[in-house]
């Protein structure tokens, strides 16, 4: 398994629509393994393929030990009241914003063996699923912020972005670079 470089805000791949995976091959399983490795190295709780420069519709999530590899995930149902909570993103380090999302969500996807499954989640896991699925459609948490909050977040990013030449964030393996949960 390898820790992959993370693409940060400004890399056009983060704004691309991903491609449906037609077959879960060994190549996809390797990508899933590398994405878990990368997410853990970054102390993240979710990671989507565009964040490592790939265009397949794949993401991984691990919220409090509930780990999921999701291939071609789709939100099939949202229920419950909307909830607002602070989000961050491994592709926009050190920038945070309050995002309002449905508190309960049902997601359908293929697992690493290509088998279809459905999972209903609430709380942080529900938020994480929605954040990662957004990534697979070129959408970032910034897009959910109000105009003023987005402007403030982008001003914050302006101070950070020079640390990532070429829009690449290289992780230190085994390092605990970020104490916060980012997705
Ligand atoms: Zn993210």
Which residues form runs of ≥5 with pLDDT under 50?
none
CATH-derived topology: Peptide Deformylase
Q: Helical percent range?
A: 10-25%
Mean pLDDT: 94
Q: Mind describing the biggest β-sheet?
A: 5 strands, antiparallel
Topology as a string of helices (H) and strands (E)? EHEEEEEHHE
Overall structural domain count:
1
Shape: globular
Radius of gyration: 15 Å
Strand content: 25-35%
CATH architecture: Alpha-Beta Complex
CATH superfamily (homologous) name: Peptide deformylase
Question: What do you see in this structure?
Answer:
This protein is an alpha+beta fold. The protein has one domain: Peptide Deformylase (Alpha-Beta Complex). It is built from three helices and seven strands, in the order E-H-E-E-E-E-E-H-H-E. A hairpin with a 5-residue loop joins strand 5 and strand 6. The radius of gyration is 15 Å and the shape is globular. The protein starts with 5 loop residues before the first strand and ends in a 14-residue tail after the last strand. The model has no long low-confidence stretch (mean pLDDT 94). It binds zinc ion. Zinc ion (ZN) binds next to helix 2.
């Amino acid at each position: 398994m390898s820790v992959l470089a993370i693409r940060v805000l400004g890399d056009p791949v983060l704004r691309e629509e991903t491609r449906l995976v037609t077959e879960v091959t060994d190549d996809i399983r390797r990508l899933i393994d590398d994405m878990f490795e990368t997410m853990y190295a970054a102390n993240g709780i979710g990671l989507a393929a565009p964040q490592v420069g790939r265009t397949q519709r794949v993401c991984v999530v691990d919220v409090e030990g509930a780990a999921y590899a999701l291939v071609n995930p789709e939100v099939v149902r949202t229920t419950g009241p909307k909830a607002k909570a602070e989000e961050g993103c491994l592709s926009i380090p050190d920038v945070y914003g309050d995002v309002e999302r449905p508190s309960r969500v049902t997601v359908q996807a293929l697992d690493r063996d290509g088998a279809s499954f459905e999972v209903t989640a609430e709380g942080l896991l529900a938020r994480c699923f929605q954040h990662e699925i957004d990534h697979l459609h070129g959408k970032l948490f910034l897009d959910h912020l109000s105009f003023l909050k987005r402007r403030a977040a982008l001003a914050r990013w302006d101070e950070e972005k020079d640390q990532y030449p070429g829009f690449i964030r290289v992780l230190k393996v085994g390092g605990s670079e970020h104490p916060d949960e980012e997705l």
